[in-house]
Amino acid sequence: MSGFLLNRLSQSIVLLVIVSIIGFTVLNLMPGGPLAQFGLDPGMTQKDVERLAEQLGLNRPLWIQYLDWAWRLIQGDWGHSFRDGSSVLTVIGRHLSATLLLMGTSTALAIAIGSWIGIRGATHRYSLFDYCATVGAMVALSVPTFWFGLIGIYIFTLKLGWVPAGNMYTIGDGSVLDYLHHLILPSLVLSLVHVAIWSRYMRTATLDALSQDFIKTARAKGLSERRILLKHVVGNALLPMITLAGMQLPSILTGALVTETVFTWPGMGRLFLDSLGYSDYPVVMGLLIFSAILVVLGNLIADIVIATVDPRIRLA
Amino acid sequence: MTAIAVHATPTRWWHSRAVYRFMRHHLALVGIAMITLLVLACAIGPYVLPYDSLQIDLRARFAPPLSGDHYFGTDPLGRDLAARLLMAGRVSLLVGFSAMLLSTLIGTLVGVTAGYRGGWVGAGLMRTVDGFLSYPSIFLVLALAATLRPSPVMITVIIAVTSWMETARIVEAEVRSLREREFVQAARMVGLSRRHIMFREILPNAMGPIIVAASLAVARAILLEAYISFLGYGIQPPMPSWGNMLNGAQQYLASAPWLAIIPGAAITIAVTSFNFIGDGLRDALDVRDDHI
């Protein structure tokens, strides 16, 4: 187990190094590079900028600059926002919980709905339901999230008036119910794509499990079909879902950015777009690196959880 | 000797089992039909329609669909939505298609090199793939698009350099499994150059998965272009694209819902079609289904 952990941990560290190199490359592609903020300042002449570049060591070889930058990242010095001067990590921290709430709710929804569709499709294979679910999943994977959001707002807010069109809470309210009320539509919109993915996965996994010998044994023992499904089939299909959930993280984050924009949800995605609009490059860079770190860590955690839960992996 | 390996069956390609299986895949045929219609409409439509996509008519603002000659209505500037939709289709389909070509090229080069060379080169390349895959694609694309000048060509390049990784992974796995096969050993023994073995001997045998990945890559590229154009960092107005037509649609959702519904439907139809085609190709070419 510890060997597996150590191996997996070192892989993640290598990955983080590569991720940071990609990030550093993007940073240097930005207009004016790391000194972009001063290029916009009319009080700074070209000479001032050059002097500053020398002071900050921007005329050193690139690899030394990279090491310096990476070292500051590790120490938690991610720079300061151009907009309000607060540190980048503080700014990200302010928006993190809203995004995690949205992502968590929609993932839970997607797993619940997707599993149900997938299991039903497998037990009623080649039925009308199965066929519709298969085609529906492929269409769902093709719908742009923002369009689904706009249609949702049009129907459920403008026509039916059931849910609010945006924001996380009503100003002056802020009760749990109010939060939930605002959460329903965005999390449903965000979950659509993942309902499709989970249902496809669950269908395959259930079919796979149903053909195993231990299911025949369970049937021979006289267990009810329902009990076989819930205990033996779903139990076996659920484990790899943890890995899959880790793999889905980048696409959930992508979906979250778009969903947050449509529903004016105050999360990391909105922050990213706002910062882009203000050319607030330290925050943009911070979020870029932060999202990738989140993905790497998410996958690491998923692997560790799997290894602790699944006895078969322990030897690896 | 090598010719035998590649051209073992001298039948015409349209008699092959793959084509037969593809033709039996109904969804794939629906996909082909829809894409053909879309491409024809976008190619010919703008010449046939009575309006130009950029022609502003302030007296005819917000005309609903099917009013007068405006089949799909008009936008806030009174421009004909049908004409804009078809012009936008040209841009979106072209960007999607070119991005697919470029990303497939990059992915194939990286995949073949990593798969055949193996060792440090292979490991380094594949870890780079993992590194790129750790970034949520839209964050990377938006950061690049906001930084570099967003011309259609630049958008195509940005989408391609952020979406070649899937292809690279698929090709790498395929090439690695082919590397020690007899025909490759034979080619090595005869003394063919490494480049010849990689691209003339192994690559043709890995075409199936590449074609499948490419058809799905078009779908993804069209979606990605729509996302960034919708957010205002992709194709810039006045040039229309399906994504940027939706850009201002949200504020008119109550009064002019067709502004949002119609371009989004076009995106969905195009992307669904390419996904259907990819699914049909996967069945026809007998490619193992790796990602659900």
Automatic annotation (TrEMBL), chain A:
Family matches, as Pfam families: BPD_transp_1, BPD_transp_1_N
CDD domains: TM_PBP2
Membrane topology category: Multi-pass membrane protein
Keywords: Cell membrane, Membrane, Transmembrane, Transmembrane helix, Transport
A GO biological process held by the record: transmembrane transport
ABC transmembrane type-1 domain residues: 96-306
GO cellular component terms attached to this protein's record: plasma membrane
TM region(s), chain numbering: 12-30, 96-119, 131-156, 176-197, 237-263, 283-309
Range of residues in the leader sequence: none
InterPro entries referenced in this protein's UniProt entry, alphabetically: BPD_transp_1_N (IPR045621), MetI-like (IPR000515), MetI-like_sf (IPR035906)
Compartments, as annotated in UniProt: Cell membrane
Cross-referenced Gene3D superfamilies: MetI-like
Coiled-coil annotated residue ranges, if any: none
Alphabetical list of PANTHER family matching this protein: DIPEPTIDE TRANSPORT SYSTEM PERMEASE PROTEIN DPPB-RELATED
Family designation: Belongs to the binding-protein-dependent transport system permease family.
Protein name, as recorded: Diguanylate cyclase
Automatic annotation (TrEMBL), chain B:
Keyword Ion transport attached: no
Swiss-Prot/TrEMBL keywords: Cell membrane, Membrane, Peptide transport, Protein transport, Transmembrane, Transmembrane helix, Transport
Keyword Disulfide bond part of the UniProt annotation: no
Pfam name, any one: OppC_N
Chain segments annotated as transmembrane: 27-49, 93-116, 202-235, 255-278
Family matches, as SUPFAM superfamilies: MetI-like (SSF161098)
Primary localisation category: membrane
GO BP annotation list: peptide transport; protein transport; transmembrane transport
Location of this chain's protein in the cell: Cell membrane
Residues of the ABC transmembrane type-1 domain: 89-278
A GO cellular component entry from the record: plasma membrane
CDD domains registered for this protein in UniProt: TM_PBP2 (cd06261)
InterPro entries the UniProt entry points to: BP-dependent_transpt_permease, MetI-like, MetI-like_sf, OppC_N
Membrane topology type: Multi-pass membrane protein
PANTHER family referenced in this protein's UniProt entry, alphabetically: D,D-DIPEPTIDE TRANSPORT SYSTEM PERMEASE PROTEIN DDPC-RELATED, OLIGOPEPTIDE TRANSPORT SYSTEM PERMEASE PROTEIN APPC
Similarity remark: Belongs to the binding-protein-dependent transport system permease family.
Protein name: Peptide ABC transporter permease
